[in-house]
Specification:
2 domains; Immunoglobulin-like; homodimer; mainly beta; 351 residues; five-stranded mixed sheet; Sulfite Oxidase, Chain A, domain 2; globular; 4 helices; 39% strand; 24 strands
Chain lengths: 351, 351
């Protein structure tokens, strides 16, 4: 297992080798990448961030302007909304993420809310659109005309939460080109399509944004009054992943092993993690490791005595969040090719 | 040319033979049909219309209840949002309508507003969802899960206009099964996907409806702040169609002919119709025939002296509405496979 695993070159898609999990923070060089277009070449001297739309005072800021604002650092897990897609049968379209479409970093920058307050958000504001400098053609139907920028919106209430950041440092280092230099959003607790990279424009909008990455891609069908309605993906769902043992590994019988992994629940804390060795019929609690950090994954481990007889065994891990929401055993088909939070089987050979 | 022209059997799609245009009203037997699923079998005795959602008093009404309410009759043109699609090169997906994805009838029923006032619309209402009893699977991506009902929403302001009707009579006859028996909406001035047939449920909603026929189908990309955003199709655009001569017809040289047709502009009146014989370089006014009827097409004619020399000639008709909006010569590619209102060429042979 090299680090990271290349899933696509153009655009660049890199998977974090999740079996390398050894702490809260993912090193920058292994942090997963999901780009949609080529990395834009940005000269930070000429780069400006525009803030416009339903604001009292439109802004055009340099990187130094932003760095001179009050700093905020937050440790947060990012996860691609398609993480774990390879576990689905029959297969669905999209990047075939295994376990590593998720990583955790300490992000340093400013609160988006501080910037919005500087511009003066008008009472009619409904959403805040985050626009990246990355741009290209897309293929999925319904296909928008011509090249488009990556862009996502947040409801105004979410955008004004102090924990939505615009960051220029990742784990204490200058943000790299592939992670969004010079500035990216971190929408802690939401799937990472909301954490727009290479930010160039912030538009305060009076209407609901219907952009491609909001309605066609990174959207799903939700039932409302009996009708499936198209809804943008937002909050991360509760999930546990097993880092060790690896799928298809062979383990010795009657052996003491430590199963370990991470669990996360978006905006919520993880309350418990459990392990099943019988396909979900019975569950045993795992031990949560370290202090809980809101928005960051929770490390956990489980002291396991392997079976006394040789044969096949499947491990499942299941997380429950602080509100009692827990993982299902099956994927909700309404969500199609996104938001996989069913318990992922780790099949092992006992010898 | 038989009447009507069958474009599809399952679901039933019938085109009005537009060259049969001979007055304001299209006879019921020739009125175009665009169904999406099989015609639902409805027993009018057991049928009920439900009104629910953000209302003070949910309703469940019989057909007699509805017929006992104040009656309103309106003459209105309906047009499929894909009408004239066959004229587009290169071809685009969808039913290949020629000129007859449009027809006009006198519709009798009640104002939707009267019904909504009876139920008491709450101040939080944003939209009104009209749900048909017709139901089935759809194929276009992104494909919603399972069978869905045909459903469309109107902004609350539009829904409260007195000219949005729920009708049970079409040209003085009981509404037929294929046209939506026992009750259909007529959203005058909007493309006909809004005029939901076989109405079974009206939901007053506090949010924007993201149903399939609102976001995937019968929607288009509109530019907003530089981003294409997905918008439901709504208002009909200004358009003229030539009923005579027919495309590819041969006409005698030096001959007096009357070119005739209809023009419409949705919620607006048609102010003028013009004819071009030189590809749109010069235009001559046609004569509007009869009194203008808001929401209904405007008949027009043009006394033509055919060219003195044999050869090929292309006629164009162009309508302008009362606000000065006029037809373009080319299709706006942002609208993709819907809302064709470019001037349609009628190519003729002069001999």
């Amino acid at each position: 297992m090299s680090d990271p695993i290349v899933l696509s070159d153009d655009p660049e898609v890199l998977e974090y080798p999740f079996n390398r999990l050894d702490g809260l923070i993912t090193p920058n060089g292994r942090f997963y990448v999901r780009n949609h277009f080529a990395v834009p070449e940005i000269d930070s001297d000429s780069w400006r961030l525009k803030v416009e739309g339903a604001v009292d005072k439109p802004l055009e800021l340099t990187l130094d302007d932003i760095k001179s604002m009050p700093t905020r650092t937050l440790t947060s897990t990012l996860e691609c909304a398609g993480n774990n897609r390879i576990f689905l049968t029959p297969p669905v379209k999209g990047v075939k993420w295994e376990l590593g479409g998720a990583s955790t970093a300490a992000w340093t920058g400013i609160s988006l809310a501080d910037l919005l307050n500087l511009a003066g958000v008008q009472a009619t504001a409904a959403e805040v659109i985050l626009e990246g400098a990355d741009c290209g053609e897309v293929k999925e139907e319904p296909k928008p005309p011509g090249p488009i920028h990556f862009a996502r919106s947040l409801p105004i209430a979410k955008a004004m939460e102090k924990d939505v950041l615009l960051i220029y440092q990742m784990n204490g280092e200058q943000l790299s080109a592939k992670h969004g230099f010079p500035l990216r959003a971190i929408v802690a607790g939401w799937y990472a399509m909301a954490s727009v990279k290479w930010l160039s424009r912030i538009i305060v909008s009076e209407t609901s944004f219907g952009g491609y990455f909001q309605t066609t891609d990174y959207a799903f069908w939700q039932r409302q009054d009996g009708h499936p309605v198209r809804v943008p993906i937002s909050r991360m769902l509760v999930k546990a992943e097993i880092a060790y043992p690896l799928p298809n590994q062979t383990v010795e019988r009657n052996c003491r092993l430590t199963i370990n992994g991470a669990a996360w629940a978006g905006e919520r804390l993880v309350a418990k993690v459990e392990i099943s060795q019988d396909g979900g019929a019975s569950w045993s609690p795992a031990k949560l490791v370290g202090e809980p950090v809101r928005y960051a994954w929770q490390l956990w481990e489980y002291a396991w005595l392997t079976p006394s007889a040789p044969g096949k065994i499947t491990l499942l891990a299941r997380a429950t969040d602080e509100t009692g929401e827990t993982q299902p055993l099956e994927h909700d088909p309404d969500r199609e090719n996104y938001m996989f939070n069913f318990c992922l089987p780790v099949r092992l050979e006992v010898r």
